[in-house]
C-alpha cells in the first residue's frame, strides 16, 4: 500500500482551526502585493496543498474568505501599531501615529479596501475598519488621559491622520516634500489643537 502524499498527510494533521489559520495566513501574504479582489483562491488552495473545493469547506464563499483575511489584517494593524505601555503618554501617541502612517504607506491598496470596501461589497468590512479606529482611539485616550467627553474628537482625529497618510503615501517616496517625522509631528500638533479647542 502506498504511503500518503505530503498534501494528504498535512490535510489529516491540521485541525479545522489550524487549517483556517493556514489559509488566512496565505491570503494575508498575498494581499501584500495583490488587491484582495484579485486574490486567486486556486493559488491559495494550491499553496495550502488542498483543493479549491476543500477551501470552500472552511470558508463557504469567496467573500467569507476575503473577510477573514481582512479581519486578520485589521488585527495585524493593531498589533503593529500598539505602543509600549512603559513609554510616556506622549511617546506612545507618537509611536502609534508613526506606525499607523507606515502601515498605510506599505499597504495602501489594502487600507483603501478597508476604508472604502472596494472589491468586497459586505458591511462586515466596515466593522473591521471601525474596530481598528475604535481601539486606536482608546489607546490614545488612555495614553494621555484625555477627558472621556473628547473621545469623538480623538476618533475623528484618527480619520485625519489616515487621510494625511493616504495622501502622503500616494506620492512616490522620491518626490515627497514632507518627511515622515514632520508628518507625525504635524498630526500630534493637530491632536493637541483640536483637544484644546474642544475642551
Mean pLDDT: 86
What class, by secondary structure content?
mainly alpha
| Proportion of residues in extended strands | under 5%
Give the overall silhouette.
elongated
Largest sheet: none
H/E element sequence:
HHHHHHHHHH
Helix content, binned percent:
over 70%
The helix tally amounts to 10
Q: Tell me the quaternary state.
A: single chain
- The total beta strand count reads 0
* N-C termini distance: 77 Å
pLDDT below 50 for ≥5 consecutive residues: which ranges? Answer: 1-11
How many distinct domains? 2
The value of Rg in angstroms is: 20 Å
Question: How would the blueprint of this fold be written?
Answer:
Elements: H1 6-13, H2 16-30, H3 41-48, H4 52-58, H5 62-80, H6 89-106, H7 108-116, H8 123-143, H9 151-170, H10 180-198
Structure description:
The N terminus is likely disordered. Helix 5 runs parallel beside helix 8 and helix 6 crosses helix 9. This protein is elongated. It has 199 residues and is mostly helical. The protein has two domains: 55 residues, Homeodomain-like (Arc Repressor Mutant, subunit A, Orthogonal Bundle); 117 residues, no CATH class. Helix content is 72%, strand content 0%.
Amino acid at each position: 500500500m502506498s504511503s500518503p502524499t505530503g498534501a494528504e498527510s498535512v490535510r489529516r494533521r491540521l485541525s479545522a482551526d489550524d487549517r483556517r489559520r493556514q489559509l488566512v495566513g496565505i491570503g494575508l501574504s498575498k494581499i501584500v502585493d495583490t488587491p484582495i479582489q484579485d486574490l486567486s483562491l486556486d493559488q491559495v488552495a494550491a499553496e495550502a496543498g488542498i483543493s479549491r473545493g476543500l477551501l470552500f469547506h472552511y470558508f463557504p464563499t469567496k467573500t467569507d474568505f476575503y473577510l477573514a483575511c481582512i479581519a486578520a489584517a485589521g488585527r495585524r494593524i493593531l498589533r503593529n501599531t500598539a505602543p509600549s505601555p512603559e513609554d510616556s503618554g506622549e511617546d506612545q501617541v507618537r509611536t502609534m501615529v508613526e506606525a499607523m502612517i507606515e502601515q498605510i504607506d506599505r499597504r495602501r491598496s489594502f487600507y483603501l479596501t478597508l476604508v472604502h470596501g472596494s472589491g468586497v461589497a459586505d458591511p462586515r468590512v466596515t466593522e473591521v475598519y471601525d474596530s481598528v479606529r475604535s481601539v486606536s482611539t482608546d489607546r490614545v485616550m488612555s495614553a494621555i488621559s484625555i477627558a472621556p467627553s473628547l473621545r469623538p474628537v480623538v476618533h475623528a482625529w484618527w480619520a485625519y491622520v489616515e487621510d494625511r497618510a493616504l495622501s502622503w503615501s500616494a506620492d512616490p517616496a522620491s518626490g515627497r516634500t514632507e518627511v515622515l517625522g514632520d508628518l507625525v509631528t504635524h498630526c500630534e500638533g493637530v491632536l493637541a489643537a483640536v483637544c484644546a479647542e474642544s475642551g
